[in-house]
Design brief:
homodimer; 6-stranded mixed β-barrel; 19 strands; globular; disordered N terminus
Amino acid sequence: MQPAVEPATTTTTTGLTLRRVAIDTYHENVAYLHRDCEVVRAEGFQALSKVEVRANGQRILATLNVVDDSSIVGCNEIGVSEDAFARLDVAGGHPVSVSPAEPPESIPALFRKINGERLGRDDFRHIIRDIAELRYSKIELTAFVVACNRSELDREEVYFLTEAMVASGRRLDWHEPLVVDKHCIGGIPGNRTSMLVVPIVAAHGLVFPKTSSRAITSPAGTADTMEVLANVELPFEQLTGIVRQHHGCLAWGGAAMLSPADDVLISVERPLSIDSPGQMVASILSKKIAAGATHLVLDIPIGPTAKVRSMPEAQRLRRLFEYVAQRMHLSLDVVITDGRQPVGRGVGPVLEARDVMLVLENDPRAPDDLRQKSLRLAGRLIECSPDVRGGDGFSIARDILDSGRALAQMRAIVQAQGERGFDHHHPALGALTLEVKAPAAGVVIGIDNLQIAQIARLAGAPKVRGAGVDLCVKLGEPVAAGEVLYRVHASYPADLEFARQACARASGFSLGTAAQVPHVFVEF
Amino acid sequence: MQPAVEPATTTTTTGLTLRRVAIDTYHENVAYLHRDCEVVRAEGFQALSKVEVRANGQRILATLNVVDDSSIVGCNEIGVSEDAFARLDVAGGHPVSVSPAEPPESIPALFRKINGERLGRDDFRHIIRDIAELRYSKIELTAFVVACNRSELDREEVYFLTEAMVASGRRLDWHEPLVVDKHCIGGIPGNRTSMLVVPIVAAHGLVFPKTSSRAITSPAGTADTMEVLANVELPFEQLTGIVRQHHGCLAWGGAAMLSPADDVLISVERPLSIDSPGQMVASILSKKIAAGATHLVLDIPIGPTAKVRSMPEAQRLRRLFEYVAQRMHLSLDVVITDGRQPVGRGVGPVLEARDVMLVLENDPRAPDDLRQKSLRLAGRLIECSPDVRGGDGFSIARDILDSGRALAQMRAIVQAQGERGFDHHHPALGALTLEVKAPAAGVVIGIDNLQIAQIARLAGAPKVRGAGVDLCVKLGEPVAAGEVLYRVHASYPADLEFARQACARASGFSLGTAAQVPHVFVEF
């Protein structure tokens, strides 16, 4: 039934000018209006209302904060946070109009997910597009993340989510039949295999455009560690040129707009420690597919303090990765690895860069676990070449490393990206140190990945490049009473003090007898 | 194993002074630090980090916003939002210290709920205490609300939640054996029975200290409507005195700190339209128990556009209310009522106050449905008296109303609270009007509660007291083509235009034949 009323004409409130409010609201568009502003009264706006701000053909949705201080925003102004200001792309003082916003188009689908329903392909596409365009408030974003976590997305929903995340951003095309990549699900400090796998595999001739994130909750990401050696923030054209010439690169992927919705989702997943299988698979695969990979080797470490703690759990996760990869036409090789302890000796950007360079130089002091793991991962990728027989990859990788070709390849990539002049024989470590010693003689029977990572972070890593933890002994090694277990490096007294407090609470090391050393979960 | 390190000393960062940043962050403590501030660099703070701010013995947790404008906050200052400033309770310029905050104590319990676990009594107590003390960020708050919504709290968890919410605030004690109250779960416009039930039951001599909320998503709450007649924001001592003298009051409960965690939870439930049974029961019962009620009559309306749409659903909700009430030693009488359409004629504070006064005066123009429903609810409460026989309540209530004693009681309460001089025979309605007319002859077979409420809100209610919708016909009544179905009142042209657009989308009225009028779900 249609009522007998006059047709509607749209009303908008104008007469306001734009003002940049330099507050970093971290992936949320916030608009600031003065409480006495005409539009607040007339529209019945209240704190946290959703408003639409329009200027010069651009329109954004923002969450409203009501302000009582006219030095922040006056009665004839609308302030917007830095993210929102950049999106509107007009100068301060520009006339803008504001109106009560209809909620983002995908909100009904969000409400259905909150109520536990299964969503379809279009639902995920709309939700992820709204998220990538910052149309969701932090409340709506959190509701989506928690609802997906709880109702355990089924595998087809994970595929829809992955596909939607790829579609939300840029997708690179290298115009190559074979583009390889590797990724680890994380959680193991010192696990810097990418910086060895890339030069080995690129030296073999495969195209390997590796883009990495910076550390989110860990003491160093690949981008942070590579940045010790070379520039990692490269314009896209330069990155393409380096890959063309040297087959590989080791760059930061943050500016490339690959799966941008992922970065927004992480802003709420991180404070809630949410890392559900569905969200992990969608996050990792969407980034790799958007980066143009055709073949991916995925490292799932397993151990008592790793993200994955049992073999059945690892196998479930592997099957989910494989299902989604197959639907997305990505060739995937999952390897389950030893995650009982940190890899290598150093934890923190400079310390990890040192370990990587020692392996590349075949230095006898190089950590053997980092070398072996990197060779095995590189071998798997080399076997993606149509001309390499299954089983031959490892020895090809070892020949490339032993012959110095991997080192030469790394030097070429470092020089192309912009060398930093890092001297790994005299690395610039944090000058303040703290030694944690064995309280009694024994054999190392446990090294807690989480606690070592936490200590390295408190010491300043990754922000302070030379900060971190340098392990002196590893699992299964005997120690005497008073022998140094590890050394903490920091640059600031407050950082060292925080690390000292954490060490005092729990050193992360357990000592016992040789028989108590946990067996290796996997043979990889 | 304890490591061999020196005992820790706590470090704090001082040298900062406090500044009030007049931004209304709506139940979230926010701290503002300049990006170039020493402490941001030294502690590795990033946007949305949790920080602890201490001043003069007070300590609060706040979510960090990083600022790039030193006119908002300088490098030697820490800004805090209005909520946080009030909590610290010191003047601007006061020295403060800030440090990275440990997450609130209850976060591990929150994470367990996110992962679908059942929580115990202590878990709920810790979570709700942290929420009431504004220690949760909006992200953590949303995660709690969504996790509880999805995993469908079992009834014992709802009891634990209710108990924790009562414990989070003040609990009134009237030193009376019998303290009655009534509540409706909401969703029915015009349903202002409390303003009739209170004077009737108080005239009978029962103690009835009614505190109400303002409208959250509806066009008028009881507090908004009562405020047309009298002052509703009363100091606690005055409120007590009025109840002692007149047995009843009709006041706003917002300042009494009754179940304060509820108000914080509502700030995220509202934008997500979350109204799960468990959260509804805990919210309503915690407020009533904190207000000191010993006997409660609860109104659950049922109808096609009510909150509850089927009898089995109403019965499930009734059982949950009854279980929790019994565990909390509250005597509860649930009544399931006709929620097929708005109650009374007017929707909006002034219009609803007019309807209430017409009923109290036994005016022939008074809406009969409002009169009948109020008498039945009042009768149920009167039967709580030990000297009234079951079944006699209704006629006692009717005698009180018909005799004018209810009107006299209301006048006494209004005068005691502070009369506003409202003339209900010439109510000050919004001067701008819009009539919605029947497009054809027929019988009214449906009135959409949600759409009528939405139109009244867009017209300005409850903020604009005289705005709203005045219904001219109700369910089952015949209309001629062109006859007025309802009149919209507004005070501002923009409001009227928004209401007009909503009416054009859907008038909320359905016409048909007498046989199509939906039957009454209940006989109450």
